[in-house]
Structure formats: structure tokens, C-alpha cells
Amino acid sequence: MSITVTGISTGETTRAAGAATIAAPETAGPRPSFLPLIVDVAVPVGSYYLLKNGFGMSTMAALGWSSVVPAVRTVWSVVKERRVNAMAALILVVNVVGLALSLVAGDPRLMLAKDSGVSSAIGIGVLVSVRLGRPMMTQAMKPFLVKGDAARAAAWDRLAAGSAAFRKAERTFSLVWGTILLGECVARVVGAYTLPIDTMVWLGTVVMIASMVLAFLLSGRFAVVPMEKMLERELAAGTGTQS
Predict the structure, then answer these.
(1) What is the rounded CA–CA span in Å between residue 178 and residue 152?
(2) Are 144 and 133 in contact (CB under 8 A)?
(3) pLDDT tens digits for 81-103?
(4) Given Cys at both, which of 24, 72, 201, 234 links 28, Cβ 3.0 to 4.6 Å?
(5) Element of type H or E holding 115
(6) Distance between CA atoms of 227 and 56, rounded to whole angstroms?
(7) Residue 112: which H helix or E strand, with range?
(8) Exposure string (b/e) for 198-235, b if CB count within 10 Å is 16 or more?
(9) Among the listed residues 62, 73, 122, 79, the one whose alpha carbon sits nearest the alpha carbon of residue 97
(10) How many CB atoms lie within 10 A of CB 5?
(11) What is the reported pLDDT for 71?
């Protein structure tokens, strides 16, 4: 069993549910806000499942072909835009990790431990993005808070430019996810080599689900809720100024 960002059997899709997001123009609806999410995440994930389950390709072949779009997106952003498309690059890296891990065979404990490889790749990528000042998970959260509304998008931009508290909440969101994903990786590796194999087979899935729930709860409590409140206050202040 190989583990990839597309969640072959343990729900890895959820772990890469971030996507690059662009500010919507004033006349834009929800579609422009979610287009990068579709291109950077939904297309690679969907193509993997289609190729593997629909066309009967091997895991390695499906992984390779589903990496074409994120690879092109990454190269295009570097060559044409002089920047790295963080989410497309992360999807590409995780697929490469998945390809490498698919070659691992033999020791059953090693087979269990390799399941954590994708979690560690995503977690490290997210934490590095925070260190570089471009918290990656914000790109997944922004469309859901902005909701394709021009006024909310403008309020977001003002807060991102002028509010230290808002930027701290952005970093916190990514820090929570990156830290929990790395913690999950460590827990599953330790479990793979210390617990009975039969126990770890089902416990690994429990650890993954518990990690996702914990990440959602903590990131919501310490990042999403404060950011939403700041957006509402900024919107109210902007409306008052205009009137």
C-alpha cells in the first residue's frame, strides 16, 4: 500500500486541502476564488483516482501522470511569475515522496512506518512556508472566509497589510496544521516499532483521524474564529466610513 497526497487508503487528501488563492476582482463571485483550489488540488486528486480506479493504472503510473499538472504549475510560476506556487510545489513533492515510498517493501513494520512519510512531507512544507513568511494553509482558508465577496476580500487585504494580530492568526493556522502533521508522523513511526503489528494496522487510522479533528479544532479556535471576527469588524468599519 502506498500513501500519497491523494489518500489511497488513509485519507491523505484531507492533509493537502490547501490551495493557492488569488484576490478576486470587485465583480468576481466565488468561482474565481476557488479556481486555484480546483487546479492545484482537485485536478491532481481527481486524475489520480480516475487513472487508478477508472483506467486500471498502477499506483506508480497514476501518481506519475497525476503529477503533470502540479509540475507544470510549479515550473510556470517560477519561469513566468518569478515566484513558487507553494501548493502546486507541495503536491508535486508529496507525489514524489509517494512514488519513492511505493518502492518500499519487505519488513511489515517498515511498511507501517512509511505511511507517515506523506504527513511529514506536508508538515515540513507547511512549517517552512511559515518560516518564509508565506503561511501555506492560509491559501486554503481564505476562500472560505472571503466567500467570493469583494468587500470581504478588500477587508482581508487591508488586515493582512496593516494588522499584526491578523498576520499572527494566519501564521498560527499553518503552525497548528504543520505541527500536528509532524506529531502524527512521529506517533505512527513510534507505534510501528513498539506496538504489535495487528494493533498498529487499525491504530494508525485512528491516529490520523484524531490528528485531523485536533487540527481542525485548534486551528479554528486560535486562528479562524479570531480572523473572522477581525474581518467582521473591518467590514463594519469600512461600511461606517463609506456612509
Answers:
(1) 27
(2) no
(3) 676 666 677 777 777 777 777 67
(4) 24
(5) none
(6) 44
(7) helix 108-113
(8) eebeebbeebbeebbeebeebbeebbbebbeebbeebb
(9) 122
(10) 30
(11) 81
- Please tell me the total number of residues recorded for the chain in this structure: 243
pTM greater than the 0.90 cutoff: no
Provide mean pLDDT across the span 2-27: 37
Query: Which single residue is written with the C-alpha cell 484576490?
Result: 23
**Cell numbers describing residue 202:** 487499525
| Nearest in space to 134 (alpha carbons), one of 86, 76, 77, 89 | 86
Task: Sort 241 into a burial class: Cβ within 10 Å, 0-12 / 13-18 / 19+.
Answer: exposed
- For residue 89, the number of C-alpha atoms closer than 13 Å in the C-beta half-sphere is 15
Angle between helices 86-101 and 59-66 (to 10 degrees): 160
